[in-house]
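To whoever is on call:

I kicked off a structure prediction for a single chain this morning and the downstream step that reads the tokens threw a length-mismatch warning. I double-checked the sequence; it's 165 residues and nothing unusual in it as far as I can see. Pasting both halves so you can look.
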Amino acid sequence: MNDKHKVEFIDNPNPIRRKVRVEQGVDPANLIRRADKQVQKLSGEFEEIFAATIPALGEAMETVRKSDGTDTDALAQVRRMLHDLRGQAGTFGYPLVSQVGDSACKFIDLSETVGPAETEVLGMHVDALKAISQAKIKGDGGPVGAELRGGLRKVILKYNEKKAG
């Protein structure tokens, strides 16, 4: 057999096994209840994180706006904050925040370039998150949340029409 095609098997040690403690005879339902209690406890902390993130997100978005999207560092900072919010929000019972953040992240990711039009659409997402924070909207936001999601959807559809036409 040619050395070029030689196959080598490497044993991969499992370091997690050494770090994780397995309790025998533990009731999974009890573990789930404990985890749910912990998530509920941390959801209050998410409100604080969300409220603290909004000013920083607003500042970074303002930098993006002033540069018409050419400040790639500020845009990356906005994307990172949106990404973090969307992940945490869904975990802690704020699906509206997660949905708005997800929409904004996808918009950034799918935009070939970022200019004034893209900056405007992204800014509307950030403004929606500011409104959610100021009004302390929880959960899916009910009718207000549906209106916000619908408005952002319309903005993106209109943007896509202009881009295509």
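Update from on-call: the warning came from a stale cache, not from the record. Cleared it. Sanity check on the structure: The two ends are 59 Å apart (CA to CA).
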